[in-house]
Write a structure and sequence with these properties.
With 188 residues, this protein is mainly beta. It has no helices and 16 strands. It is 0% helix and 54% strand.
Length: 188
């Protein structure tokens, strides 16, 4: 058992007969009344995100997990196939277990979190950023960059990201996987 002071991003807990992963949290200490922790929980079975508030000192049941490195192989409909980089065993996961499946490139190494009790995969963690190539975007208009204007671009994985006007087809860009947003041009 843990309490609210142990809450951190990525912690898996049992709540309402389901296993949830903490996506966001905020400790709040109001001027009047007891402190509390405002959280955003994502169900690892359904992918549904809920908001919940825990009072300070509330006991929470954490789930013991272990992480393993897997390489993304290919997608087949809504099923994604991964291979363990240590023993080469393969597993298949449904699309709703993934945080941002449209940013995954074949051959990319991800971290999969497993429940140690029953060895069930709970969720897939992407690296903080990925580098992808722009396959389609409209050409930018020269001189139209006084503001932070953006335009839609399609990446090599099929993801659609808003990018600055100076980005062209064939450019490789760095994308933040948490927000699916443009960070910078990739340095070659």
């Amino acid at each position: 058992m843990a309490n609210t002071s142990d809450i951190r991003k990525g912690l898996c807990i049992k709540y309402n007969n389901d296993i949830y992963k903490i996506v966001e949290f905020l400790h709040v200490k109001p001027g009047k009344g007891p402190a509390f922790v405002r959280t955003k929980l994502k169900s690892v079975t359904t992918g549904k995100v809920i908001d919940n508030t825990f009072s300070s000192g509330h006991k929470i049941e954490d789930v013991r997990v272990e992480t393993r490195s897997y390489q993304y192989l290919y997608a087949e409909g809504d099923t994604f196939h991964f291979m363990n980089t240590d023993d080469y065993n393969q597993i298949a996961l449904q699309k709703d277990a993934l945080d941002s499946p449209d940013l995954m490139k074949e051959g990319q190494v991800v971290t999969i979190i497993f429940n140690t009790e029953d060895q069930m995969p709970l969720s897939v963690e992407m690296p903080a950023s990925v580098i992808l190539e722009v396959t389609h975007t409209e050409p930018g208009v020269k001189g139209n960059t006084a503001t932070n204007a953006t335009k839609p671009a399609t990446m090599e994985t099929g993801a659609r990201i808003n990018v600055p006007l100076f980005i062209n087809e064939g450019d490789r860009i760095k994308i933040d996987t948490a927000t699916a947003s443009y960070q910078e041009r990739a340095k070659e």
